Structures are given as C-alpha cells and as structure tokens.
C-alpha cells in the first residue's frame, strides 16, 4: 500500500482526531520512554476487557513490564501513527518452532480506522520474512468468542477461522471459549 500521509500534529494523532491512512502506520521496537504513551491503553478498562492483564493504575508496574517482558521479547513492536505510539503488536514463540502466537492492542481513540488490520498484515509480512528460514510456518491468534472486533480484524487480515476451542482459556475468573485463527507462511496476504 502507498504512503499517502499528509502531515499530522502529534496532538491530533494522540487525540485520535486525525484521519489515518495505512501509510502512516509504522512499527518499531519499544523503548522505556514509551511508558507514558502505553498508559493510554494499558489503563483503559475497555481495552483490557479481553486481555490477560488488569488495567494499570500507575506507570510503575507498567515500566517493570516494559523492562522485564517487552524489551527482551523476540518480537514485540510499538504501533505508531505518524510517529506517535498508539498500540502494540507481538508475535510470541510457542513450544513449537513452526508456530507463533499473535497479540495486538490499540488505544481506544484509534479504533475503527483500519489501523490494526494494516498492522497485522505488516506484522505477518515482517515475521515470515525474518523467521520462515528458522522454521516458522504458522502464526495463530486465539480470540475470545465475545471479541467481535478482533474476530473481524483477524478475518480482514487474512486469517482462517479454524474453530472454537471450548472452555479453553481462564480469563478473569471464567473459563472462556476461544476462536482459533491461523495464517500460514504460504497463505496469500490480502491487498
Ligand atoms: C481489536 C482491536 C485491535 C481492533 O483494532 P481496530 O484498529 O479498531 O481494527 P480495524 O479498524 O482494523 O478493524 C476492526 C473491524 O471490526 C469491526 N468491529 C468493531 N467493533 C465490532 C463489533 N462490536 N462487532 C462486529 N464488528 C466490529 C469494525 O467495523 C472493523 O471492520 P470493518 O472494517 O469491516 O468495518 C481493538 O479493538 C483493540 O485494541 N481492542 C482491545 C484489545 C483486544 O481486544 N485485543 C485483542 C485480544 S485477542
């Protein structure tokens, strides 16, 4: 896709008032100084509803997560819109070298603009380019049956819905049914 960006101010981007084009979305490694930007989504109960973590109440534990988990992680990227950090995408190792698991989160101000779909497509291209020589053949995403936005996103990004894993995941006090999605190294990326 083409980068058709027109200049945006950081304030517009942070507020989510700028109309975003795919070319404005970039990925980069996290830095400790990103902690304040991360609080925008990490402290939001609506964002956290389907995520493993509880909303953060202060930056101190988030900084520890950034230092101890994010920075050493083999593939954990900041989602940037016109340079401002607005979310995160990760592709985590599993017990099998051929298979990794996708995760993503976006600050609420940026939902519904196609940002996550663009990010997931880009992440798939990048991880297979990096890791297919090491044996990566499948990226999977496990999505709560109630998380309709995430299911739609996975399908738009080219994932195949394989089925529902019943009572698969202990989530905030309840065993949840999860939809299993996969994208294989030889699946075509949608335009
Ligand atoms: C899931 C998430 C990353 C989607 O980000 P996004 O940038 O808004 O996604 P996109 O705009 O690329 O696509 C979302 C699609 O879901 C659709 N959608 C949104 N809410 C929906 C709902 N309640 N029911 C059905 N579809 C919905 C949108 O209309 C859009 O589809 P469309 O382009 O056909 O209209 C974002 O909502 C988020 O961060 N959620 C909280 C964290 C989370 O749940 N992470 C995933 C854990 S598996």
Automatic annotation (TrEMBL):
<dbReference type="InterPro" id="IPR000182">
    <property type="entry name" value="GNAT_dom"/>
</dbReference>
<dbReference type="InterPro" id="IPR016181">
    <property type="entry name" value="Acyl_CoA_acyltransferase"/>
</dbReference>
<protein>
    <recommendedName>
        <fullName>N-acetyltransferase domain-containing protein</fullName>
    </recommendedName>
</protein>
<dbReference type="Pfam" id="PF13302">
    <property type="entry name" value="Acetyltransf_3"/>
</dbReference>
<dbReference type="GO" id="GO:0016747">
    <property type="term" value="F:acyltransferase activity, transferring groups other than amino-acyl groups"/>
</dbReference>
<feature type="domain" description="N-acetyltransferase">
    <location>
        <begin position="25"/>
        <end position="185"/>
    </location>
</feature>
